[in-house]
Design a protein that fits this description.
Chain lengths: 302, 167
């Protein structure tokens, strides 16, 4: 018995799910639109003898025929960032505009921060916060390498985050890519489940609810909050959303993705959730040959 | 004149006349330097505000926020001042150096790889001494790699250790 057996009834084709979880991931990088274009990055890899496969749902993602994308010219120039395919989902769903005020509430190590900055054309204000001091240097160096000038990095607790010192009262949109049990990263980190426990699950869901609640408060009326995790556990996904939506004036809204997924669930181990949870998306590893992911889009004060 | 408070981000003054902090350059002086040294036009930074944190580190932030700011970082550290020769950062050169029209040394593939490894090399250069932008051709464009210090016929790579790579 291991943790993933909990999800046999949820997943559908459980054998395909299991098989996918045991395969290594393809090597995927995201092209940094602040510094170059997908075409130029692809050409540079091909000039270096590295075959490139594009992704239909996201033209900035390149699958590379090398295990070491970090030792290439495009990486040295900050043209690309090593980023698992599903990790490119939440920034796409948040879809900020140039000049927006955006909060990335759990930003380290910065993959999504860099992607958000590129979507904003590196204009406006992107507050990239993380409470984990140890991961802050990775966040900073990734932003620097990608040439991000629109981000302010802060080191605060997302549950009572305040931006008064930055002169920002509220945000057009907030991304909560929450700390989680990371079950969906099993293909990248085969030991991802080794420290799984109900104790940690209870602790992390408390944190997730606190950060999401604060995110909803910080978004302007009509603003967008995206909640995502890289885990399968409904306790960390639908249950967190259901809890916060009970307290706060916000609702789940539908969104398009272009990747195979299944809807969020409305029932788990005797607990029922609001029917709007079906507007969230669960991406399982066997759907698109990726890691696992969960993503929901909220409209605030709607 | 007051002393620099190195613990927070303080916005630099628009001109020398408005500056009230010992040794801090104005926005005007910063823009002039990028233009004089590298031919990067002031318009490149039109939407950026400049800030100092630490002793002489200048940051470019792509928005307006009230000064001072307490944060871990604010935009991109673009240059080091408060020393005889101002020095651009590798990150700034990679981000804005594509617009440079002077003091850019174009390296061949072998020289470029050595530069990325942090090696010093003799290169053909008959321009100014001092800090140069090292660049090479890739995918049909001339792309900046980093900052080199040219002295006595030699280009000294200033790639930070964490960014050095052997390709």
């Amino acid at each position: 018995m291991d943790v993933l057996d909990r999800y046999e009834a949820l997943v559908g084709d459980f054998d395909a799910f299991r098989d996918a979880c045991e395969r290594p991931l393809p090597n995927v990088v995201r092209v940094n639109g602040i510094k170059t274009t997908p075409e130029r990055a692809a050409r540079a890899f091909e000039e270096a003898g590295i075959a490139v496969t594009r992704r239909e749902w996201h033209d900035g993602l390149l699958e590379l025929d090398t295990g070491k994308p970090g030792n290439t010219w495009p990486y040295a120039h900050g043209w690309v960032h090593g980023q698992e395919e599903v990790s490119a989902i939440p920034a796409r769903v948040l879809d900020p505009d140039p000049g927006d005020r955006v909060l990335d509430a759990c930003a380290a190590p910065g993959s999504k921060t860099g992607q958000l900055a590129a979507l904003m054309d590196d204009t406006g204000t992107l507050v990239a916060n993380d409470d984990n001091l140890g991961r802050l240097s990775a966040l900073r160096s990734n932003c620097d390498r990608l040439g991000v000038t629109c981000a302010a990095v802060t080191n605060r607790d997302g549950r009572n985050f305040s931006t008064k010192e930055l002169g920002v009262e509220s945000f057009d949109s907030v991304l909560v890519d929450a700390p989680c049990t990371c079950e969906g990263t099993i293909r990248k980190n085969p030991d991802a489940l080794d420290n799984w426990s109900h104790g940690y699950l209870n602790q992390v869901t408390g944190t997730q609810k606190g950060i999401l609640r604060r995110a909803v408060e910080l978004a302007e009326p009509g603003g967008t909050v995206v909640y995502s995790t890289c885990t399968f556990a409904p306790e960390e996904n639908e249950a967190v959303l259901d809890h916060v939506l009970d307290e706060k004036d916000a609702e789940l809204v539908p969104f398009e993705l272009g990747l195979d997924s299944v809807p969020g669930i409305t029932e788990w181990e005797g607990e029922t959730f609001d029917s709007s949870m079906e507007r969230a998306k669960r991406v399982y590893p066997h759907h698109n040959d990726t890691g696992g992911f969960f993503c929901a889009k909220l409209e605030v004060g709607a | 004149m007051r002393e620099n408070d190195s613990s927070r981000f303080e916005r630099v003054a628009p001109t020398e006349r408005e500056n009230d902090v010992e040794g801090r350059p104005s926005r005007e002086a910063i823009l002039e330097w990028w233009d004089d040294r590298f031919g990067i036009p002031s318009e490149t930074f039109a939407d950026c505000t400049f800030w100092e944190k630490g002793a002489g580190k200048i940051w470019a932030f792509h928005d307006e926020v009230p000064s001072p700011v307490r944060a871990e970082s604010l935009g991109l550290a673009v240059m080091r001042v408060r020393q005889e020769h101002w020095k651009p950062t590798t990150d700034a050169v990679q981000r804005f150096g594509g617009e440079a029209t002077r003091n850019v040394v174009e390296l061949d593939e072998g020289e470029a790889r050595a530069f990325l490894e942090g090696e010093d090399r003799e290169v053909a250069w008959d321009g100014d001494w001092g800090y140069l932008i090292a660049a090479h051709d890739i995918a049909g464009v001339t792309e900046p790699i980093g900052v080199g210090l040219y002295l006595y016929g030699e280009l000294r790579s200033r790639m930070p250790k964490g960014k050095q790579r052997t390709l």
